[in-house]
Design goal:
- The radius of gyration is 29 Å and the shape is rod-shaped.
- It has helices at about 1-10, 15-45, 125-170, and strands spanning about 50-60, 65-75, 80-85, 100-105, 110-115.
- Helices cover about 55% and strands about 25% of the residues.
């Protein structure tokens, strides 16, 4: 029973080397997510809003042959120029219907680089932040678990040392 407890404690000590590795990975992913989010915020801050209309859904096949539908959106700039662009995210089934109205964000210097203002704009950064946060949290828990195991082992070793001292004193007497 006692040896199983010691083996379990020693196994938990692996958190001292796995935890820091996971912490570095988690913090790296978290940093990339925040950078991506900051870039998206800067991009959105320089863009102007407009209302667009989905004029077509274009089917495109990926490298595995699966078909995704991409919206073709048309909108007018503040200067009255009509612009058409393809949405950056395809889906199957289609996320939009032909004729649907969508919010558009565009750069006045380059209206062709417009984007549909939706949750998909923030998805990559939010995924990275979520995964990075999960890795960071798990690594901290691994390190704390290893510290708890070390304290338990230290207590056991302290008791064994005390028992040894008592046995030595008895033997001398």
């Amino acid at each position: 029973m006692m040896s199983l407890w010691i083996i379990n404690s020693i196994t938990r000590l692996r958190g001292f080397w796995v935890g820091p590795i996971m912490l570095v990975i988690g913090l790296g992913i978290l940093y990339l997510g925040w950078q991506w989010r900051a870039h998206t915020q800067e991009m959105v801050a320089t863009m102007l809003p407009a209302e667009g209309r989905v004029v077509e859904m274009v089917p495109l096949a990926d490298h595995r042959g699966k078909t995704f539908f991409y919206p073709i959106v048309e909108f007018r700039t503040a200067e009255g120029q009509t612009v058409r662009f393809q949405g950056g995210t395809g889906s199957n089934p289609p996320s939009y219907r032909t004729g649907a109205r969508v919010k558009v964000l565009y750069d006045p210097q380059s209206p062709q680089s417009a984007v549909i203002d939706s949750w998909e704009l923030w998805l990559p950064s939010n995924l990275l932040i979520g995964v990075g946060g999960f890795f960071t949290l798990m690594s901290i828990l691994l390190i704390l678990n290893a510290l708890a195991a070390l304290l338990q082992l230290g207590r056991l070793l302290g008791l064994l040392g005390l028992l040894g001292v008592l046995l030595l004193r008895r033997k001398r007497s």
